[in-house]
Amino acid sequence: MDISQSARRVLEDIVENREQESEDEGEPNAFAVTTSVVGIILFLILLTIAFEEGKHRILHAATKNTQPIIQSLFGELTVLGFLSLFTFCVTQMGEFERLSVRIFGQQEEQELLEIFELVHYMLFGVMVFFVVSVLGVVHGTKKTEEDWFLMDLACRSADHVRGVADKLHAAQKMASAQKVSTTSWFSYLLHTCTSTNSSNFYVDLGLFAGIRNEFLLDRALVPPFDPAENTGLDQDFNFSSYLSHSLGHNLAHIVELEDKTWLFLGLLTILYYVVLTLTNCKMHIFAWIWIGSGWVLFLFRNYFDYHILNILYDMSSPVSFAHLQDGTKRDYDGEKTPLFPSNSRLPSWTEIGEERLPSDSNRSVGKKLTRQDVLFWGGRNGPEVYRLVNQIHFLCSSAYVTLLLLTFYPYMFQERPMPTAIIYIVLSLLPFLFLIMTLRRSAAHVTMVCSIGVHRMPQTIAQVLREEKTDRVVRSLVLMQKLQYLAGSSEGFTKTPTATAVLSLSQEIELLFAKKTFHAMDTSGNGQIEVTELRTLMDRLGSPVTDSSFQAIVMLLDPNGDGIITLEEFTLFYQQNVLLHEDKNERATNNIMKELAHQIFHQFDKDDTHSITLSEFKAVLETFNVDFTIDEMGQLLNEIDHDNTGSIGVHEFEDLLENHRYLFRSYHLPPLPLGM
């Protein structure tokens, strides 16, 4: 009896083994599939690196004049297009079928091709999410630039600076009451998850003020850390515009994926292959490991942001709201302590001792690192390290989301109970949502770190200064049209000064810009504009003004009739006839901007050729007291002449005014009859 039962069990085992073998013959081996996927990913990464390396070699070999052509050609032939072409050629050669038979057997000659296409589509999905992530940051840059603009305006007004200091002090009290600070990474993590946009804005505003002050001073890197005499900037320098240019520069670097980024992705692929092999290719285990990777990515990003924030604190002036890295608070007195410290108060990077500096034998680029250099990962190569970290972060986040959507979510819904699938989705989305919430602020902080102190960019400073000069010219042209409009609409009225209205912050700063416009129109440079000087200026610009209209303009600008327009008279006119009639209707502003562009353009286009020669526009620039250098004028003309025809068309002139669209919000409104 025992023998018969044993024989029956043996027969049952044989049948089960044969059934299992038959099932295995119908399905490829999981280990072979996993190995094939990893091998294909690594192969495609190597192809991508080869493609980029070939592109750089061709560009390096090309002349300067032919490089734009090469870049346009490679813009048409993308990496993904190259991989698709490669896949098609290999498929037509039948290589996939032959390799598939060797790996999976005679019955699975299409298996390798299917795996290759799946991996190809996954990489395509990763790149799509990468593009979407960068576009999301680009979309957020509009809000970031608006915040910087408001912060920059606040820093130029003493009254608003005092208000900012009070709000920062109140925010500090609130943070202290909630036991939330940034004195350690873990507390910063809690602060990230619980802080509001309002509190973050005021903290960033305080940082902006301290960083801006130090940026303008451009201190020496050695004791006694005196401000630079030649490279220092005026207090009215447009620091927000400088940061906006730097932000675009950094995002452009992120889009251009480097070989190091692809190699890092390849190493991660090998690491996950080892993990998958150790788990015996069990999908449910690897799915939870993938979620853990998302949380690790979030925690590292949070630590990275904390590191960046510490650099900003160390680089900024020791203003009242800031914390030292050791957790001690700087003194604050709402009435006595200024938000902008005097030059004698030094930022905390100056307190770094010699023991933290590398020895003479450990030098970077042949020079010893400075106190500022040691704050950065990579020393003098700090910005490059941070841009690489951002690249890897965006790429890893894209890979994380892609595999969740294409692999793990379908598996969870098909193979696991619904409650488990829901829990999995929630836990997998949380780190991604936290990353999205902090991405815009993090990008702003990284931009500031990569463009201040030892990494200050003189070429960007020169560009901002040139744009400020162009702004003065455009303001003057717009004001000339405004004067003609007011003169034609206000004849018969007697203009008398009115009480000065309370100005908003933007109007207050706009009035400061108006003073620069006055100096641009003061062609003699004597601090006042004579009536004859104004008439000569309008004639040189081709403004069709009759004698009666010109007299009306003079009445607007020179109410006492002494024949001299002073700065006080000019600013009073500007405040009463421009600032107090501001209209923020976006559609109306667009229409007026285009109409005004055509009006100014046709004044210069005297021969009605629908174009302005570069020499004619150069003469317009020289009309005003702006002091363009030859290089600045050449760069501006090259930027305006998009099609390189040697002349400026009406659409190119519209583009010039588009960059100064905020000047047109009050142009179309009827003038206020001040004498009524």
From TrEMBL:
Q: Where are the transmembrane segments?
A: 30-51, 72-94, 118-138, 261-279, 285-304, 388-409, 421-439
Keyword terms, alphabetized:
Calcium, Membrane, Repeat, Transmembrane, Transmembrane helix
Q: Which CDD domains match?
A: EFh
Which InterPro entries does the UniProt record give? Centrin_CML-like (IPR050145), EF_Hand_1_Ca_BS (IPR018247), EF_hand_dom (IPR002048)
Where would I find the EF-hand domain in this sequence?
509-544, 545-580, 592-627, 628-663
Coiled coil regions, renumbered to chain: none
What does the record give under GO molecular function? calcium ion binding
UniProt name for this protein: EF hand domain containing protein
Top-rank lineage group of the source organism: Eukaryota
